[in-house]
Amino acid sequence: MMLKLSFLVSCIFFPFLFFLPVFSHSQYPRLQPNGSLNDSRNQQSFGFLKNIQGCRKGENVKGIRDLKMYLSHFGYLNYQNNPNVTNPKEGHFDDELEAAIKSYQVYYHLNATGTLDEPTVSTMATPRCGFPDKETHQHSEKPFNFVSRYRFFPGKPKWPKGKRHLTYAFGSGFPTRFVPAVARAFGRWATASQYFTFSRAESYPSADLTISFSRGSHGDFPFDGPGGVLAYAYAPTDGRFHYDADDRWVVGAVPYAFDVETVALHEIGHLLGLEHSQIRDAIMWASFNPGVTKGLNFDDIQGIRALYGS
To answer: Class of 165-308 per CATH?
Structure first.
C-alpha cells in the first residue's frame, strides 16, 4: 500500500466508468454468467465516441460529458482545478475541452485540430491499458522528439536497491494455458533489464507480484467489459496486475482477440516502474489492437535500464 501514486487518485475522478466485465474460460468467445456464449464482436466500452464524432467547440452534444470523463481519467483534462468551469459534466464543448483534445492528438501523433475527427475517435476507441497517459493535465501542442520517449512515474518509484529477484503468483481461477505466456513475458523483461530475475512464488500471499483476471468493481480499478480497458497494473512496489476477464484472451495473433503475452509485457513494465511511452512501437504504448502480437522495443529497454542503472 506504500505507493498507489496518482493512478489511484486519477481513478477516483473517473466516475462514469460503466464497467461490467464477465469472466471468460473459453479460448475465444466470452462466457456469460448464465453459462451461455456471447460472441458479439462489435460491443465496445468506448462506443459512445462514435456518436459524437465530428463535434467541435461551441456545440452542445449528448455524450460530451462522457468524453470529458474519458479525457479526465487518461490525464488530459482537469476541471477540478479550473475555477472558471462551474459544471464539468454538462454537454457543452468548451475551450478547455478543445485544448484537452489537441493535447491528446499531439500525444498520439494526430493533427491537432481540436475537433473530434475520425482519426481521433478511432484512436480513442482503441482498446488500451487503464493507466493514465499523463499525470499533470498540462496541455501541449508542440511536437515531441521521438528519439527516446520512455517515462517514469512521478517521483520515479522503483523496487528497492538489492531487490533484484521478484516472485510472481496467479490468482484463483487463472487459466493454466495462459501461465507459460506470462512467464515468457517475465523472462523477456529479465533479459532486457539485465537487472531483474523472476520466479513463480510458492504461494499467492508471499508473492511480490500478483496476476489475476477480474470483473467489474473488484476493490480497486473497475473494469468495463469487452473492448475499452483491457488491463492495468500498479507502480512499484504494489505488485498487482489485473486482466479484464470479459475481453477475449488468447496466446498468439488471433483475429478479434488479445494476446495474453503482449499485454503482460506492457503491464509488467508498469510493475517495474515504467509509465506509458510516446513511441508507437514500444510495448509501453498505451493501446493494443486485436489480432496483433508485440515485443519489447529499444525504447522500453532504454527506459528500464535508465531506471535501474544497468
So the answer is: alpha beta
